[in-house]
Amino acid sequence: MRKRGWIVALCMVMVFAATGFAAEPKKGGTLIFGRGGDSVGLDPAYETDGNSFMICDNVLEALVEYADESTKIEPGLAKSWEISPDGKTYTFHLQKGVTFHDGTPFNADAVVFSLGRQMKERKLKFFGKGYEIPPQEKTPEYWVTMEMDNTVDSIEAVDEYTVVFKLKRVEAPFLANMGMDFADIISPTAFLKNPKEFIRHPVGTGPFRFVKWVKDDQIVLEKNPNYWDKRGGPYLDKLVFRTIPDNSVRFLELKAGSIHLCQFPNAADIPMAAKDPNLILPTQAGMNIGYLGFNHTKPLWQNVH
Length: 305
Description:
Layout: E1 10-13, H1 15-19, E2 30-35, H2 50-59, E3 64-66, E4 73-75, E5 78-83, E6 89-94, H3 108-116, E7 124-125, H4 141-145, E8 152-159, E9 162-167, H5 174-177, H6 188-193, E10 208-214, E11 218-223, E12 238-243, H7 247-256, E13 261-263, H8 270-275, E14 279-280
Parallel strand pairs: 2-12, 2-13, 7-8
Antiparallel strand pairs: 1-13, 1-14, 3-4, 5-6, 6-9, 8-9, 10-11, 11-12
Organism: Desulfatirhabdium butyrativorans
Domain Solute-binding protein family: 72-304
GO biological process, one term: peptide transport
């Protein structure tokens, strides 16, 4: 499962203290995550919010991924890759024997479809019969703001498990970009069945598969029994993401044992969590840059000097 560079304050119940288990952890069970807001949508091409990516990261995967707590690039759905001497051709060799949650095969044509649908000028070549990609319902925000149309010239499925990206220019972060959420690979078959519904029912190759979404209440995922990467689980049987907008209520539910993780507790509750023997307050160095933005339309900030 990919890790992102989010700054997230979490309080996590000690599972064994809360349930009476000691010693060795056991696989399985349900993890309930309490978060402050619901997802906006679950199509990785169109979402920009953390609560949406949180779900996508468990259901979907990209060609490459980031190592834990690092920006180091590791193999994902691509097992290896080569970069041409001029830095403008990337050849990805894909994992074999991977299937989407709907049972359809992951292959080079799925990669061409997933990323090609975001291109303004679709210079695409499928290896098999390919897919007819429908017009974009809305702007793929990340693809556009990261100027991917100015970077990617064409995408070609050379064979069933080889994809070649031809670039218009040398782009140093291109490989890292291929590990971001917008580059997740989706099931073309599932998408084409109902493009407008895919945003509410994603189908990928990840360790968990989508079960249901009750808007402003909860999203439920279940273990993918056919997950291809046996090194990484999945550890749990089910994930439940509950929407609990009030920080104080969310923290009280954590203390009561109704949820197992609490997103963004109030600052005043953090010392209490640190002292509670039934709670763990993990810390992790942030990997993104925080900033202050000044609204120059307000009188206080109109004098830039």
